[in-house]
Amino acid sequence: xxxxxxxxxxxxxxxxxxxxxxxxxxxxxxxxxxxxxxxxxxxxxxxxxxxxxxxxxxxxxxxxxxxxxxxxxxxxxxxxxxxxxxxxxxxxxxxxxxxxxxxxxxxxxxxxxxxxxxxxxxxxxxxxxxxxxxxxxxxxxxxxxxxxxxxxxxxxxxxxxxxxxxxxxxxxxxxxxxxxxxxxxxxxxxxxxxxxxxxxxxxxxxxxxxxxxxxxxxxxxxxxxxxxxxxxxxxxxxxxxxxxxxxxxxxxxxxxxxxxxxxxxxxxxxxxxxxxxxxxxxxxxxx
Length: 287
Prior knowledge:
Layout: E1 5-8, H1 14-26, E2 32-37, H2 40-51, E3 58-61, H3 67-81, E4 84-89, H4 103-125, E5 129-138, H5 151-158, H6 164-180, H7 192-212, E6 221-225, H8 243-246, H9 248-254, E7 267-268, E8 274-275
Parallel strand pairs: 1-2, 1-4, 2-3, 4-5, 5-6, 6-7
Antiparallel strand pairs: 7-8
Helix pairs in contact: 3-4, 4-6, 4-7, 6-7
């Protein structure tokens, strides 16, 4: 059997690290799980920690904000493995509640990383996906569509005719509005992180349609998920879930069996249940 290649972005710590560990424990002996990180030093240390547990992840440097880094990783995967089987888009940033940067600056940076940089990585790696590939975009309950106050925005984000370009434009419009203080007047929530994850969830639905339309490969499934309120640096360790519990949905999406009917293009809750991203309700809005 051909070895499968798994990639988890932003995985030197937190939920991403837990996902790499869980995947290493689940996959076959020939399969390869890549832990990636911006810092070679931190990534190598994370790999060493997993190796001490008897696991064998591989490491590759990856900064999703750096197109050269993305391109180098894509070229490496193509040369070394000829393709990719599983991609978990976990890398993201979030400003703390006490952050002093102007909201417009927070919005620009958060949308750039969580939405546009993730999209850039997808554009580079999706051509490498093989038949039966699985993709999981790590989103959030704060990116649940009903949390967007504006009805017109909700309708646009969820329309069957909405394209990736349409969502790109909405994300740019939010950043512009955040800088001049008019974002809530336009119907956006007052959370740069929340909007970034709304955008990524909306993009996930479009991406599944694009994968479905690809006649050169079969059975490619992409979902987006809420890992829960996890005890990590991102939550200032206020989360109630361990990273091991927080990675359950990520691993579930990565391991959907070949030929499964679904879930496909769905919003997956941390307990692996499917949630209606457009209408809800959420099983629990707080975690």
